[in-house]
Protein backbone atom coordinates (compact mmCIF):
# COMPACT_ATOMS: atom_id res chain seq x y z
CA UNK A 1 0.00 0.00 0.00
CA UNK A 2 1.08 3.58 -0.71
CA UNK A 3 2.53 5.40 2.29
CA UNK A 4 2.06 9.13 2.63
CA UNK A 5 5.29 10.64 3.92
CA UNK A 6 5.41 14.15 2.42
CA UNK A 7 2.39 16.42 2.79
CA UNK A 8 1.84 19.95 1.43
CA UNK A 9 -0.88 22.36 2.50
CA UNK A 10 -2.02 25.54 0.80
CA UNK A 11 -4.23 27.82 2.90
CA UNK A 12 -3.36 28.48 6.52
CA UNK A 13 -6.69 29.86 7.70
CA UNK A 14 -9.35 28.46 10.03
CA UNK A 15 -9.47 25.03 8.39
CA UNK A 16 -5.83 24.83 7.30
CA UNK A 17 -4.44 25.55 10.77
CA UNK A 18 -6.85 23.17 12.51
CA UNK A 19 -5.60 20.15 10.52
CA UNK A 20 -2.19 21.61 9.65
CA UNK A 21 -1.22 21.83 13.32
CA UNK A 22 -1.74 18.05 13.72
CA UNK A 23 0.23 17.33 10.53
CA UNK A 24 3.04 19.63 11.67
CA UNK A 25 3.23 18.06 15.15
CA UNK A 26 3.54 14.58 13.69
CA UNK A 27 5.41 14.96 10.37
CA UNK A 28 7.74 17.87 11.24
CA UNK A 29 9.95 18.71 8.21
CA UNK A 30 7.91 16.47 5.92
CA UNK A 31 4.95 18.82 6.22
CA UNK A 32 5.23 22.01 4.17
CA UNK A 33 2.97 25.02 3.80
CA UNK A 34 3.03 26.87 0.48
CA UNK A 35 2.78 30.63 0.83
CA UNK A 36 4.04 33.70 -1.02
CA UNK A 37 6.98 35.66 0.39
CA UNK A 38 4.60 38.38 1.59
CA UNK A 39 2.49 35.84 3.48
CA UNK A 40 5.51 34.08 4.97
CA UNK A 41 6.86 37.39 6.22
CA UNK A 42 3.50 38.19 7.78
CA UNK A 43 3.16 34.73 9.35
CA UNK A 44 6.71 34.85 10.72
CA UNK A 45 6.49 38.40 12.04
CA UNK A 46 3.10 38.10 13.70
CA UNK A 47 3.20 34.34 14.34
CA UNK A 48 0.13 32.12 14.09
CA UNK A 49 -1.78 31.42 17.27
CA UNK A 50 -3.85 28.25 17.35
CA UNK A 51 -5.98 28.12 20.49
CA UNK A 52 -3.47 30.61 21.98
CA UNK A 53 -0.45 28.40 21.17
CA UNK A 54 2.13 29.92 18.80
CA UNK A 55 2.89 27.81 15.73
CA UNK A 56 5.80 28.04 13.29
CA UNK A 57 5.27 25.99 10.17
CA UNK A 58 7.77 25.01 7.46
CA UNK A 59 6.97 27.51 4.75
CA UNK A 60 7.92 27.20 1.12
CA UNK A 61 7.34 29.74 -1.63
CA UNK A 62 5.43 28.78 -4.79
CA UNK A 63 8.57 29.32 -6.87
CA UNK A 64 10.72 26.84 -4.92
CA UNK A 65 11.27 23.75 -7.07
CA UNK A 66 10.67 20.90 -4.70
CA UNK A 67 9.81 17.31 -5.63
CA UNK A 68 6.15 16.24 -5.65
CA UNK A 69 4.43 15.58 -2.33
CA UNK A 70 2.57 12.35 -1.59
CA UNK A 71 -0.47 14.39 -0.55
CA UNK A 72 -1.51 17.98 -1.29
CA UNK A 73 -4.31 19.56 0.75
CA UNK A 74 -6.19 22.65 -0.43
CA UNK A 75 -7.74 24.79 2.33
CA UNK A 76 -8.26 28.20 0.71
CA UNK A 77 -11.51 29.99 -0.11
CA UNK A 78 -13.16 29.23 -3.45
CA UNK A 79 -12.20 32.58 -4.99
CA UNK A 80 -8.58 31.95 -3.99
CA UNK A 81 -8.46 28.52 -5.59
CA UNK A 82 -7.21 29.47 -9.09
CA UNK A 83 -4.10 31.13 -7.61
CA UNK A 84 -3.58 28.31 -5.09
CA UNK A 85 -3.74 25.76 -7.92
CA UNK A 86 -0.88 27.60 -9.65
CA UNK A 87 1.09 28.01 -6.43
CA UNK A 88 1.27 24.29 -5.62
CA UNK A 89 2.32 23.25 -9.13
CA UNK A 90 5.76 22.00 -8.00
CA UNK A 91 4.15 19.78 -5.36
CA UNK A 92 1.82 17.86 -7.65
CA UNK A 93 3.11 14.85 -9.55
CA UNK A 94 1.24 12.09 -11.35
CA UNK A 95 1.00 10.01 -8.14
CA UNK A 96 0.18 12.84 -5.73
CA UNK A 97 -3.08 12.36 -3.85
CA UNK A 98 -5.15 15.55 -3.60
CA UNK A 99 -7.74 16.56 -1.00
CA UNK A 100 -9.74 19.75 -1.32
CA UNK A 101 -11.40 20.82 1.94
CA UNK A 102 -13.19 23.74 0.31
CA UNK A 103 -16.93 24.00 0.75
CA UNK A 104 -19.16 23.87 -2.30
CA UNK A 105 -19.42 21.28 -5.04
CA UNK A 106 -16.99 22.59 -7.64
CA UNK A 107 -13.41 22.70 -6.31
CA UNK A 108 -12.47 19.10 -7.17
CA UNK A 109 -13.52 19.63 -10.82
CA UNK A 110 -11.55 22.88 -10.92
CA UNK A 111 -8.40 21.16 -9.65
CA UNK A 112 -8.90 18.25 -12.04
CA UNK A 113 -9.29 20.63 -14.98
CA UNK A 114 -5.91 22.16 -14.12
CA UNK A 115 -3.87 19.02 -13.42
CA UNK A 116 -5.75 16.06 -14.93
CA UNK A 117 -4.48 14.23 -11.84
CA UNK A 118 -6.26 10.89 -11.33
CA UNK A 119 -5.71 10.86 -7.55
CA UNK A 120 -8.19 13.52 -6.45
CA UNK A 121 -10.35 12.28 -3.60
CA UNK A 122 -13.59 14.08 -2.77
CA UNK A 123 -13.59 15.49 0.74
CA UNK A 124 -15.01 17.98 3.19
CA UNK A 125 -14.72 18.88 6.84
CA UNK A 126 -17.74 18.80 9.08
CA UNK A 127 -18.65 19.65 12.68
CA UNK A 128 -15.64 21.96 13.05
CA UNK A 129 -16.21 25.33 14.73
CA UNK A 130 -12.95 27.10 13.86
CA UNK A 131 -12.98 30.90 14.00
CA UNK A 132 -10.12 32.95 12.56
CA UNK A 133 -9.39 36.57 13.42
CA UNK A 134 -6.35 37.75 11.46
CA UNK A 135 -3.52 35.45 12.59
CA UNK A 136 -5.43 33.81 15.47
CA UNK A 137 -7.57 30.70 15.19
CA UNK A 138 -9.77 29.25 17.92
CA UNK A 139 -11.85 26.10 17.88
CA UNK A 140 -13.44 23.82 20.44
CA UNK A 141 -13.70 20.92 17.99
CA UNK A 142 -11.89 19.99 14.78
CA UNK A 143 -14.83 17.85 13.74
CA UNK A 144 -13.81 15.33 11.11
CA UNK A 145 -12.88 14.99 7.46
CA UNK A 146 -15.23 12.86 5.39
CA UNK A 147 -13.77 11.69 2.13
CA UNK A 148 -13.88 9.05 -0.59
CA UNK A 149 -13.52 8.13 -4.24
CA UNK A 150 -16.23 9.28 -6.63
CA UNK A 151 -17.06 5.61 -7.29
CA UNK A 152 -17.02 4.94 -3.51
CA UNK A 153 -14.33 2.23 -3.76
CA UNK A 154 -11.83 1.60 -0.97
CA UNK A 155 -8.90 2.42 -3.24
CA UNK A 156 -5.21 2.47 -2.29
CA UNK A 157 -5.43 6.28 -2.09
CA UNK A 158 -8.36 6.12 0.33
CA UNK A 159 -6.51 3.63 2.52
CA UNK A 160 -3.26 5.62 2.41
CA UNK A 161 -5.08 8.74 3.62
CA UNK A 162 -6.81 6.70 6.35
CA UNK A 163 -3.40 5.49 7.58
CA UNK A 164 -2.06 9.07 7.61
CA UNK A 165 -5.10 10.43 9.46
CA UNK A 166 -4.77 7.71 12.09
CA UNK A 167 -1.06 8.45 12.50
CA UNK A 168 -1.48 12.21 12.95
CA UNK A 169 -4.78 12.10 14.86
CA UNK A 170 -7.21 13.63 12.36
CA UNK A 171 -10.72 12.27 12.89
CA UNK A 172 -12.18 10.98 9.64
CA UNK A 173 -14.96 9.02 8.04
CA UNK A 174 -14.73 7.24 4.70
CA UNK A 175 -17.98 8.05 3.00
CA UNK A 176 -19.98 5.18 1.55
CA UNK A 177 -21.60 7.64 -0.90
CA UNK A 178 -19.39 10.67 -1.42
CA UNK A 179 -21.72 12.40 -3.90
CA UNK A 180 -24.47 12.33 -1.30
CA UNK A 181 -22.03 13.50 1.39
CA UNK A 182 -20.78 16.44 -0.72
CA UNK A 183 -24.35 17.51 -1.50
CA UNK A 184 -25.34 17.16 2.14
CA UNK A 185 -22.52 19.51 3.15
CA UNK A 186 -23.47 21.85 0.31
CA UNK A 187 -27.03 21.89 1.65
CA UNK A 188 -25.75 22.75 5.13
CA UNK A 189 -23.61 25.62 3.87
CA UNK A 190 -26.44 26.98 1.73
CA UNK A 191 -28.63 26.96 4.84
CA UNK A 192 -26.55 28.01 7.81
CA UNK A 193 -23.65 29.96 6.25
CA UNK A 194 -25.85 32.31 4.28
CA UNK A 195 -28.52 32.99 6.90
CA UNK A 196 -25.89 33.50 9.61
CA UNK A 197 -24.03 35.95 7.36
CA UNK A 198 -27.19 37.99 6.75
CA UNK A 199 -28.32 37.90 10.39
CA UNK A 200 -24.76 38.28 11.75
CA UNK A 201 -25.70 35.43 14.07
CA UNK A 202 -23.41 32.90 15.80
CA UNK A 203 -24.59 29.28 16.18
CA UNK A 204 -26.23 30.08 19.56
CA UNK A 205 -28.99 32.07 17.82
CA UNK A 206 -29.99 29.11 15.66
CA UNK A 207 -29.78 26.74 18.64
CA UNK A 208 -32.29 28.80 20.63
CA UNK A 209 -34.49 30.66 18.15
CA UNK A 210 -36.86 28.43 16.13
CA UNK A 211 -37.75 31.17 13.63
CA UNK A 212 -34.08 31.59 12.69
CA UNK A 213 -33.59 27.85 12.30
CA UNK A 214 -36.74 27.55 10.15
CA UNK A 215 -35.15 29.99 7.71
CA UNK A 216 -32.05 27.75 7.54
CA UNK A 217 -34.24 24.76 6.74
CA UNK A 218 -36.18 26.57 4.05
CA UNK A 219 -32.97 27.49 2.21
CA UNK A 220 -31.80 23.87 2.55
CA UNK A 221 -35.09 22.58 1.17
CA UNK A 222 -34.30 24.18 -2.20
CA UNK A 223 -31.07 22.15 -2.37
CA UNK A 224 -33.06 18.98 -1.60
CA UNK A 225 -35.49 19.82 -4.44
CA UNK A 226 -32.53 20.23 -6.81
CA UNK A 227 -30.91 17.04 -5.58
CA UNK A 228 -34.12 15.09 -6.20
CA UNK A 229 -34.17 16.39 -9.77
CA UNK A 230 -30.46 15.79 -10.44
CA UNK A 231 -30.33 12.46 -8.59
CA UNK A 232 -27.69 13.17 -5.94
CA UNK A 233 -29.73 11.49 -3.22
CA UNK A 234 -30.81 14.13 -0.68
CA UNK A 235 -34.17 13.82 1.05
CA UNK A 236 -36.09 15.76 3.72
CA UNK A 237 -34.49 13.39 6.27
CA UNK A 238 -31.08 14.89 5.46
CA UNK A 239 -32.29 18.29 6.62
CA UNK A 240 -33.23 16.82 9.99
CA UNK A 241 -29.76 15.32 10.41
CA UNK A 242 -28.21 18.79 10.71
CA UNK A 243 -30.04 19.71 13.92
CA UNK A 244 -27.95 17.50 16.28
CA UNK A 245 -24.79 18.77 14.59
CA UNK A 246 -25.49 22.47 15.00
CA UNK A 247 -26.52 21.82 18.58
CA UNK A 248 -23.06 20.44 19.37
CA UNK A 249 -21.17 23.49 18.06
CA UNK A 250 -20.05 26.26 20.38
CA UNK A 251 -22.90 28.84 20.74
CA UNK A 252 -20.30 31.54 20.10
CA UNK A 253 -18.97 29.77 16.99
CA UNK A 254 -19.51 31.39 13.60
CA UNK A 255 -19.80 30.03 10.08
CA UNK A 256 -16.94 30.79 7.70
CA UNK A 257 -19.25 33.10 5.75
CA UNK A 258 -20.14 35.16 8.81
CA UNK A 259 -16.41 35.39 9.56
CA UNK A 260 -15.86 36.68 6.02
CA UNK A 261 -18.59 39.32 6.38
CA UNK A 262 -17.22 40.49 9.73
CA UNK A 263 -13.68 40.70 8.36
CA UNK A 264 -14.88 42.60 5.26
CA UNK A 265 -13.72 39.76 2.96
CA UNK A 266 -15.46 38.57 -0.18
CA UNK A 267 -17.79 35.68 0.66
CA UNK A 268 -18.40 32.35 -1.06
CA UNK A 269 -21.98 33.30 -2.02
CA UNK A 270 -21.29 32.56 -5.71
CA UNK A 271 -20.55 28.94 -4.74
CA UNK A 272 -23.63 28.56 -2.50
CA UNK A 273 -26.72 30.63 -3.52
CA UNK A 274 -25.05 31.43 -6.86
CA UNK A 275 -24.72 27.72 -7.63
CA UNK A 276 -28.24 26.92 -6.36
CA UNK A 277 -29.77 29.59 -8.61
CA UNK A 278 -27.68 28.47 -11.60
CA UNK A 279 -28.79 24.85 -11.15
CA UNK A 280 -32.37 25.97 -10.41
CA UNK A 281 -32.52 27.71 -13.78
CA UNK A 282 -30.97 24.75 -15.58
CA UNK A 283 -33.27 22.13 -14.01
CA UNK A 284 -36.37 24.33 -13.75
CA UNK A 285 -36.50 24.16 -9.95
CA UNK A 286 -37.73 27.34 -8.17
CA UNK A 287 -35.15 28.80 -5.77
CA UNK A 288 -36.74 32.03 -4.40
CA UNK A 289 -35.08 31.89 -0.98
CA UNK A 290 -31.61 31.52 -2.43
CA UNK A 291 -32.32 34.29 -4.93
CA UNK A 292 -33.04 36.61 -1.98
CA UNK A 293 -30.02 35.38 -0.01
CA UNK A 294 -27.85 35.93 -3.07
CA UNK A 295 -29.10 39.52 -3.38
CA UNK A 296 -28.71 40.29 0.32
CA UNK A 297 -25.17 38.91 0.59
CA UNK A 298 -24.07 40.60 -2.61
CA UNK A 299 -25.40 43.91 -1.25
CA UNK A 300 -23.55 43.34 2.03
CA UNK A 301 -20.35 42.79 0.01
CA UNK A 302 -20.92 45.96 -2.03
CA UNK A 303 -21.62 47.99 1.14
CA UNK A 304 -18.34 46.76 2.61
CA UNK A 305 -16.47 48.02 -0.46
CA UNK A 306 -18.05 51.50 -0.10
CA UNK A 307 -17.22 51.67 3.59
CA UNK A 308 -13.56 50.60 3.13
N1 LIG B 1 -14.09 28.08 8.83
C1 LIG B 1 -14.84 27.00 8.95
O1 LIG B 1 -15.36 26.70 10.04
C2 LIG B 1 -15.04 26.09 7.78
C3 LIG B 1 -14.62 26.41 6.50
N2 LIG B 1 -14.79 25.52 5.48
C4 LIG B 1 -14.36 25.82 4.10
O2 LIG B 1 -12.95 25.68 4.04
C5 LIG B 1 -12.42 26.60 3.09
C6 LIG B 1 -11.40 27.47 3.81
O3 LIG B 1 -12.09 28.24 4.77
P1 LIG B 1 -11.39 28.98 5.98
O4 LIG B 1 -10.27 28.18 6.51
O5 LIG B 1 -12.47 29.40 6.89
O6 LIG B 1 -10.81 30.27 5.21
P2 LIG B 1 -9.79 31.36 5.74
O7 LIG B 1 -10.08 32.61 5.00
O8 LIG B 1 -9.73 31.38 7.22
O9 LIG B 1 -8.39 30.77 5.24
C7 LIG B 1 -7.95 30.73 3.92
C8 LIG B 1 -6.45 30.91 4.00
O10 LIG B 1 -5.87 30.65 2.73
C9 LIG B 1 -4.79 31.54 2.57
N3 LIG B 1 -4.50 31.63 1.13
C10 LIG B 1 -5.32 32.04 0.14
N4 LIG B 1 -4.73 31.92 -1.05
C11 LIG B 1 -3.51 31.41 -0.81
C12 LIG B 1 -2.41 31.07 -1.66
N5 LIG B 1 -2.44 31.22 -2.98
N6 LIG B 1 -1.29 30.61 -1.07
C13 LIG B 1 -1.22 30.45 0.27
N7 LIG B 1 -2.22 30.74 1.12
C14 LIG B 1 -3.36 31.22 0.57
C15 LIG B 1 -5.28 32.84 3.15
O11 LIG B 1 -4.18 33.61 3.49
P3 LIG B 1 -4.27 35.18 3.80
O12 LIG B 1 -5.07 35.32 5.04
O13 LIG B 1 -2.86 35.54 3.96
O14 LIG B 1 -4.92 35.79 2.59
C16 LIG B 1 -6.03 32.33 4.40
O15 LIG B 1 -5.15 32.24 5.49
C17 LIG B 1 -13.61 27.40 2.55
O16 LIG B 1 -14.07 26.86 1.35
C18 LIG B 1 -14.66 27.25 3.65
O17 LIG B 1 -15.96 27.37 3.14
C19 LIG B 1 -15.31 24.27 5.70
C20 LIG B 1 -15.73 23.91 6.94
C21 LIG B 1 -15.70 24.81 8.06
C1 LIG C 1 -20.56 23.41 8.66
C2 LIG C 1 -19.95 24.78 8.90
C3 LIG C 1 -21.06 25.75 9.10
C4 LIG C 1 -19.11 24.68 10.17
O1 LIG C 1 -18.22 23.62 10.13
C5 LIG C 1 -19.10 25.20 7.74
O2 LIG C 1 -18.81 24.42 6.87
C6 LIG C 1 -18.61 26.59 7.59
O3 LIG C 1 -18.58 27.36 8.55
O4 LIG C 1 -18.24 26.94 6.45
From TrEMBL:
Keywords: NADP, Oxidoreductase, Pantothenate biosynthesis
InterPro entries per UniProt: 6-PGluconate_DH-like_C_sf (IPR008927), 6PGD_dom2 (IPR013328), ApbA (IPR003710), KPA_reductase (IPR013752), KPR-Related (IPR051402), KPR_N (IPR013332), NAD(P)-bd_dom_sf (IPR036291)
Domain of life: Bacteria
Pathway listed: Cofactor biosynthesis; (R)-pantothenate biosynthesis; (R)-pantoate from 3-methyl-2-oxobutanoate: step 2/2
Domain Ketopantoate reductase N-terminal, chain residue ranges per copy: 8-151
Recorded GO MF terms: 2-dehydropantoate 2-reductase activity
Domain Ketopantoate reductase C-terminal: 177-299
EC nos: 1.1.1.169
Enzyme class label: oxidoreductase
Coiled coil, from the record: none
Record bears the keyword Oxidoreductase: yes
SUPFAM superfamilies: 6-phosphogluconate dehydrogenase C-terminal domain-like, NAD(P)-binding Rossmann-fold domains
Cellular-component GO terms for this entry: cytoplasm
Role description: Catalyzes the NADPH-dependent reduction of ketopantoate into pantoic acid.
Alphabetized PANTHER family for the sequence: 2-DEHYDROPANTOATE 2-REDUCTASE, PROBABLE 2-DEHYDROPANTOATE 2-REDUCTASE
Similarity annotation: Belongs to the ketopantoate reductase family.
UniProt protein name: 2-dehydropantoate 2-reductase
Organism: Niallia endozanthoxylica
Amino acid sequence: MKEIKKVTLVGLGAIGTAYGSLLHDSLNESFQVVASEERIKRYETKGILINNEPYHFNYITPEAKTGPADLVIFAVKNDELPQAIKDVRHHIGSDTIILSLLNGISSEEEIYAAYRNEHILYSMSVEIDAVRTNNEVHFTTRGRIEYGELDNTLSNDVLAVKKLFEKVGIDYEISSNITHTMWWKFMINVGINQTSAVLKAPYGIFQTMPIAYEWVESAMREVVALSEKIGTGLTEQDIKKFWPIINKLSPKGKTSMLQDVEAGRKTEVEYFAGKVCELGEKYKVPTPINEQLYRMITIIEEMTKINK
